[in-house]
């Protein structure tokens, strides 16, 4: 019954709850104000508008958090989230870094999204998400406040992720009792998913074990315009123009979207055959215009003989995992929980 | 380097957040929900929207998007010139953007222009087929996180000695709270010993040393605190000046307050600023110069500076006033100064300020209101008295800057813990500033605050810092409403920081107020207020 124009604009509102629509549309409009046509970014306004929350060493729903300065030189902060156990209702100041007490405790290093330019580890939406991951996976979550574009281009975000990984790997208090090793997972949404992939590569090269990668709507791309990009451009909160802007802001000047940061299995990419890459859980939203690139990523992993599970959520848009008011959210959270616990 | 959250570590038996004194308030979320039906999911994302208004907000967002798409000029104006306020209140944010647009979109909200084909499309998705998504798992405790729980820095915990030192400080404070002074004393001795093995030039060693001193004072001199805050006015001013120079907190306070005052005075020709603590008048040259440059010319500016009486026959207030008058003369601003000497702010009576009913008044309080929070059962509450007469002046604006900390809790251990975190962070931030001769004196300034918080009680304890959330409640209850500080003030504060200071300082927007902190722990908060114009205020019981 729908004329094609109706489908364009109304579909968007049909597939998400009203409050999700309000949230994501708000982001969309605010972000439109922040990206300047000349490639610069209104950072002050961005920080002013971003809703942030402080860390809280007082457990809330069984999770407490505190911030750590991992690297003074780059002012690299991370927010650590830990579960409380029944035995320790009151915390002492020096006990925030108390050793984890279980035989196996997963440590999830989380990279927030924002297309490399937006958000922070202390953004409200990501603080909320990380707290959920702690409860869900009985894990410690380390959310990395990586440097953002366009002020800091490739490879800064990856460098920061790598610094965080080394830091996590070297904390005695994060070691699982069973084998005195830190059980590391890498996770991220949007640009954070992209970062997780590249940090995992570096980890493998340096001999640090990563037990698994969790990529939520990871941000990948390429020079070619894919079918999904053409079909879904502008339909569900995201446009090709804004995707292009963010890549131009992150990639080195003069580089195109077949750069290996953007297109890891593209013409400039490298095969992962024979490499001991961590198993991956990749979540793709069926209404995300870059899904063809995400699916190509999954294919690239499979072709290289790597273990990967694809979760294709047909009616999901970007950001569906930010609010727990839809079925995709719960499905994905269950899968993440299984993914992390299968090593225990 | 570790940053910790302070909250109620180590002692609060009720498990309450640090903003409450004895009992835990209902989670902010729940209160709001029952009273105002705030959408719980959006609250978790940092936005306050009433569920009953969601549809309206959505329609406004659509209208805004249409306008932005149709007019790139509007988009760029919204992006660069518009001042944004209080983004958490999403409805008012969207409305303010809509009202900024030169041409309000004329499309009725039922129709939306398809940006691609420019064809009108019927949009009735909201009224007809809204998907029914069950709102399960409604998480109602998000707001608890933001209830006044703040970050702190405790430097370099890698050393065992550092950790032990902190443990012992907490143990000692606990003993003091319990009244076990002999155990506390032996703790002190142990800590002195440990200090010799820890670097006391920076990091945990340095701040621990100050806390050990303060504890000693409390234990051995009793809670009168000796002459902790009894330095001469001259000394205090000197230390204040060095603190001003060494780090950006006071500059931020002055700058932000001045910006708000300047805006409040827009269009007014007779203006009167009342400064609750003149010191060397460091805040005012910038305002005088800004007023000199304002379009339409400067107003007649009166400044009333309150300060302690000078002991030695000098009239130091008048001296400062003369210097400011000279500056004003040099930039052609008609200026008059009046000094009001008072040992305590609560001794000031409004008639001393000689406010003219035709003037627009700005009341400026930089870290003064907290000194009025000591309660004496024999007197009326000083804070209520002062807020009441401020209100009676009907000021155009009241600028308030306060330490963003909870150092006025009744329990000693809670206060001690909070202060340890707060001042560790502050010292950490100071270390990052360039080494200057100022720094040592600035540290003494901070050290005196620490000593007052830790070793004094009763009327001697004047450093009764309370966090923004408490000030909001108090000021609203006293008949003031907030004037929001916007993105322009935010931007200028951020830029000021990059000019003056080391990396690591951050300005944040907090419900219409601005805070300055170190590595995401806010340390100082600036807010602006106006008297509510109706009749009576409700004083806190």
Automatic annotation (TrEMBL), chain A:
Q: Which GO terms describe its molecular function?
A: gibberellin binding; hydrolase activity
UniProt record, GO biological process = floral organ morphogenesis; fruit morphogenesis; gibberellic acid mediated signaling pathway; positive regulation of gibberellic acid mediated signaling pathway; raffinose family oligosaccharide biosynthetic process
- Entry keyword Nucleus: yes
Pfam families per record? Abhydrolase_3 (PF07859)
Concerning InterPro entries, the annotation shows: AB_hydrolase_3, AB_hydrolase_fold, Carboxylest/Gibb_receptor, Lipase_GDXG_HIS_AS, Lipase_GDXG_put_SER_AS
Domain Alpha/beta hydrolase fold-3 as annotated: residue spans: 108-321
Compartment(s) where it occurs, according to its Swiss-Prot or TrEMBL record: Nucleus
| Residues at the catalytic site | 190
Q: Could you tell me the keywords of this UniProt record?
A: Gibberellin signaling pathway, Hydrolase, Nucleus, Receptor
Stored Gene3D superfamilies: alpha/beta hydrolase
Q: Which PANTHER family match?
A: ARYLACETAMIDE DEACETYLASE (PTHR23024), GIBBERELLIN RECEPTOR GID1C (PTHR23024:SF492)
Q: What is this protein called?
A: Alpha/beta hydrolase fold-3 domain-containing protein
From TrEMBL, chain B:
Q: Where in the cell is it found?
A: Nucleus
Instruction: Identify its protein family.
Output: Belongs to the GRAS family. DELLA subfamily.
Record region (VHIID): 240-305
Residue ranges of the region described as SAW: 455-530
Q: Where is this motif: VHIID?
A: 271-275
The record's note on its domains: The DELLA motif is required for its GA-induced degradation.
Domain (Transcriptional factor DELLA N-terminal) ranges = 39-105
Q: Where is this motif: LXXLL motif?
A: 369-373
Bias (Low complexity): 10-34
Q: Name one GO biological process term.
A: gibberellic acid mediated signaling pathway
What is this protein called in UniProt?
Answer: DELLA protein
Q: Which UniProt keywords apply?
A: Gibberellin signaling pathway, Nucleus, Repressor, Transcription, Transcription regulation, Ubl conjugation
* Region annotation Disordered: where it falls in the sequence: 1-34
Annotated source species: Gossypium tomentosum (Hawaiian cotton)
Which terms in the GO cellular component ontology are assigned?
nucleus
Q: Where is this region: PFYRE?
A: 361-452
Known InterPro entries for this protein? DELLA_N_sf, TF_DELLA_N, TF_GRAS
Return the annotated region ranges for Leucine repeat II (LRII).
319-351
Summarize the protein's role. Transcriptional regulator that acts as a repressor of the gibberellin (GA) signaling pathway. Probably acts by participating in large multiprotein complexes that repress transcription of GA-inducible genes.
- This protein's record includes keyword Ubl conjugation: yes
Does the keyword field hold Transferase? Answer: no
């Amino acid at each position: 019954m729908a004329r094609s124009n109706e489908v364009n604009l109304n579909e968007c509102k049909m597939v998400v709850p009203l409050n999700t629509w309000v949230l994501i549309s708000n982001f969309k409009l605010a972000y439109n104000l922040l990206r300047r046509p000349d490639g610069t970014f209104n950072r002050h306004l961005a920080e002013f508008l971003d809703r942030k929350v402080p860390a809280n060493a007082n457990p809330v729903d069984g999770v407490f958090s505190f911030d750590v300065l991992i690297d003074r030189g780059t002012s690299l902060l991370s927010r650590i989230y830990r579960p409380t156990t029944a035995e320790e209702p009151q915390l002492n100041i020096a006990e925030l870094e108390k050793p984890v007490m279980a035989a196996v405790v997963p440590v999830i290093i989380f990279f927030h999204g924002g297309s490399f330019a937006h958000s922070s580890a202390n953004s409200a939406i990501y603080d909320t998400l990380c707290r959920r991951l702690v409860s869900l996976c009985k894990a410690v979550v380390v959310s990395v406040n990586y440097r953002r574009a366009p002020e800091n281009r490739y490879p800064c975000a990856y460098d920061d992720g790598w610094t965080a990984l080394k830091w996590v790997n070297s904390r005695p208090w994060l070691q699982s009792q069973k084998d005195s090793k830190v059980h590391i997972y890498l996770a991220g949404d949007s640009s954070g998913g992209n970062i997780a992939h590249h940090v995992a590569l570096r980890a493998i090269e340096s001999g640090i074990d990563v037990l698994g990668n969790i990529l939520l709507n990871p941000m990948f791309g390429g020079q070619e315009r894919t079918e999904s990009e053409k079909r879904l451009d502008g339909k569900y909160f995201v446009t090709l123009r804004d995707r292009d802007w963010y890549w131009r802001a992150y990639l080195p000047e003069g580089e195109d979207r077949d750069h290996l940061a953007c297109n890891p299995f593209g013409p400039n990419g490298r095969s992962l055959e024979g490499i001991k890459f961590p198993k991956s859980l990749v979540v793709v939203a069926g209404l995300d215009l870059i899904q063809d690139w995400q699916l190509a990523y999954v294919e690239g992993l499979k072709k290289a003989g790597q273990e990967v599970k694809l979760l294709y959520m047909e009616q999901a848009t970007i950001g569906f995992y930010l609010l727990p008011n839809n079925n995709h959210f719960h499905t994905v959270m269950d899968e993440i929980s299984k993914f992390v616990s299968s090593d225990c | 380097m570790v940053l910790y959250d302070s909250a109620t570590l180590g002692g609060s038996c009720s498990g309450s957040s640090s903003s409450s004194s004895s009992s835990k308030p209902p989670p902010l979320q729940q209160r709001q929900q029952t009273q105002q039906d705030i959408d719980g999911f959006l609250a978790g994302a940092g936005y306050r929207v009433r569920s009953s208004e969601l549809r309206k907000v959505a329609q406004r967002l659509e209208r805004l998007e249409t306008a932005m798409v149709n007019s790139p000029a509007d988009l760029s104006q919204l992006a660069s010139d518009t001042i944004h306020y209080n983004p958490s209140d999403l409805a008012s944010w969207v409305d303010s953007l809509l009202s900024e647009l030169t041409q309000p979109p004329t499309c009725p909200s039922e129709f939306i222009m398809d940006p691609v084909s420019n064809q009108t499309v019927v949009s009735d998705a909201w009224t007809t087929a809204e998907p029914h998504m069950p709102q399960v798992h409604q998480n109602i405790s998000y707001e608890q996180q933001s209830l006044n729980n703040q970050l702190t820095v405790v430097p370099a915990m890698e050393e065992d000695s550092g950790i032990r030192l902190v443990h012992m400080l907490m143990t000692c404070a606990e003993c003091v709270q319990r009244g076990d002074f002999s155990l506390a004393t032996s703790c002190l001795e142990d800590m002195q010993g440990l200090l010799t093995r820890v670097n006391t030039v920076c990091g945990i060693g340095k701040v621990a040393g100050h806390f050990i001193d303060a504890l000693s004072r409390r234990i051995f001199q009793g809670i009168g605190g000796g002459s902790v805050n009894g330095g001469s006015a001259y000394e205090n001013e000197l230390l204040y000046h060095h603190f001003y120079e060494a780090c950006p907190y006071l500059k931020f306070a002055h700058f932000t307050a001045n910006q708000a005052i300047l805006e409040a005075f827009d269009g007014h020709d007779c203006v009167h600023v009342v400064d609750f603590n003149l010191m060397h008048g460091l805040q005012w040259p910038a305002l005088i110069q800004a007023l000199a440059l304002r379009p339409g010319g400067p107003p007649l500016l009166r400044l009333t500076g309150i300060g302690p009486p000078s002991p030695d026959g000098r009239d130091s207030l008048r001296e400062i006033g003369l210097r400011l008058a000279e500056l004003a003369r040099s930039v052609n601003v008609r200026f008059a100064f009046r000094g009001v000497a008072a040992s305590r702010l609560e001794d000031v009576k409004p008639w001393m300020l000689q406010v003219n009913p035709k003037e627009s008044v700005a009341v400026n309080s930089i870290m003064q209101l907290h000194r009025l929070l000591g309660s004496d059962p024999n007197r009326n509450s000083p804070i209520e008295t002062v807020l009441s007469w401020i209100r009676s002046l009907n000021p155009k604006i009241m600028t308030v800057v306060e330490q963003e900390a909870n150092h006025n809790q009744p329990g000693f251990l809670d206060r001690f813990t909070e202060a340890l975190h707060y001042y560790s962070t502050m010292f950490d931030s100071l270390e990052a500033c360039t080494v200057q001769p100022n720094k040592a004196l600035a540290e003494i300034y901070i050290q005196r605050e620490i000593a007052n918080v830790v070793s004094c009680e009763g009327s001697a304890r004047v450093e009764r810092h309370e966090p923004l959330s408490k000030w909001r409640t108090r000021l609203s209850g006293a008949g003031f409403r907030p004037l929001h500080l916007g993105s322009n003030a935010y931007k200028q504060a951020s830029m000021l920081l990059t000019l003056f200071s080391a990396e690591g300082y951050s300005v944040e927007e907090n419900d219409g107020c601005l805070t300055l902190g170190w590595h995401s722990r806010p340390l100082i908060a600036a807010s602006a207020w106006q008297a509510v114009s109706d009749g009576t205020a409700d004083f806190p019981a």
